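Hi there,

I know you've been waiting on this one. I reran it after we fixed the sequence typo, so this is the corrected version. Both the input and the resulting structure follow.
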Amino acid sequence: MRRVAVTGFGVVSPIGVGREAFWEALRAGRSGIGRITRFDCDTFGVQLAGEVKEAIPLPGRVGSIAADDPKVGFAWAACAEAVASAGLARLGPRTLLHLGVSLEIFPPERIAFGGAPALPELLAGVLDASGREGHAFQIPLDTASRLIEESFGRAGQSIVNCSACAAGAQAIGHGFRCVRDERWDTAVCGGFDSMVNPLGVGGFQMLGALTTENSRGPSACRPFEASRSGTVLGEGAAVLVLEPLEAARADGKEILAEVCGYGSTMDAHGLSAPDPDGDGAARAMRDALDDARLPPEAIGHINAHGTGTQLNDEVEAAAIRRVFAGTWERIPISATKSVTGHLIAAAGAVEAGACLLPLTRGWIPPNPWLRNVAPGCELCHATGEAARFDGEYVLSNSFGFGGQNASLIFRRADGRY
C-alpha cells in the first residue's frame, strides 16, 4: 500500500474564494453568514444563509450553466485551483475524478409559500413536467464533472455520489483508498453544493433544522452553544488532489498533508435523524483510526460536524467522548459551520480543507460564538481566537441525513515518521 499526499486544494466558500482567503477567514473567525440575496426571502421564516458573494471568473459554457445553477461554477473553480496548485497539467487515464453533490437546480417559479400549490400538487407537477419548456426539474448530477473533464482532460473514471452531508468526505475517502491501493495514481476529489434556493431553504425550514433567529445575522449558527436554535445553509465547493506521497516528494511538489485514515458507516436509523446513541458516528471515527493504525490518543485536533442543531450536536459530542474516552478533555474541537453555514454535500470537503490550516499553518480555527456549552455537548471546545497547533494528526467528521457518517484523518506533512 502507498502513502497518500494532498498536493492540491481549491475552495469556494462563503468566507473566501481560494485557499489563502479561506484559511485567513477561518483563522480570524470571520463569518460569511448574512441575509439571503439569491432570491426574495421576505415570505420565509428563514432569511439567512452563507452565500458565496465573490464573483468567480468562469469560461463561457461553464458560466452559462452556472448562471442557473451556481454550484456547477463553484465545483469548476475549486477544481481549477486544486489542479493548478498540484501542478497537474491534465487529468488522464490514471486519474480518478470523484465529486459529491446533492439535489440540482429547482426553478424558483415552481415553488412559493402562501397561496401557492400545495406540496403534493407541487411534487406531482415536478414528476410530470421535466420535459416542459422552462420547467426542467434538474440538470444531470454529473454536469460539473463533465465540464471539468472538458476543461482539464478526461479522467480514467468519473464518479458522482449523492450521500447528503457526508458526500464530499466520502469522495475524498474513496479517492484516498484508490490511490493508496494502487487502483489509481491520482484522485481529484471533493464536493460541491448550494441549497440557497427556495426549495432548499423551504425544505430545511419545514424540517425544523434551520434557525429563524434572523436578527443574529453572522452569529446565527452556534454549534454546541446552549442558546443554539438550528443550523444555517451555506454553499460552496472544495476539491483535493491526492497522489502517492513518495512520488510527490520525488517530483518536488508541495505536500499540504498526508491522508492516512478513513471510516464510513450507515446508521440506517431514520430519514433525517441520527441514531440517538451515536453508534454510527463512533464507528466511523474508530474505523478511521483503525484504517490509519492509530490509537485515539494520537489525534491532536478534531473538526466536528457541528451543525448547531439540538440533536446532532449532542450525539456527536457523546460519540467523541466515547471514542476518545481518555483524551477528549484535551483535544481542541473546532466547528467551522459557525462561520460558513452548512454546505451540505460540500461540507465534508470544505471542512477537510479547513483541517489543512492547523497542519500547514499551525492554527486551530475558533468557534467564535460559543459562550456557554450546552448540557450534553461537553468537549474541549476551541473558542474565541485561533489557537496554536503543533500536533501531528487531525480528524474531520461529516455526518449526514439518513445516518451517512464519514471520518477522515490527516497527518502533518513534516510529521515525525
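Quick highlight: The chain has one domain: 4-104+139-411.

Best,
R. S.
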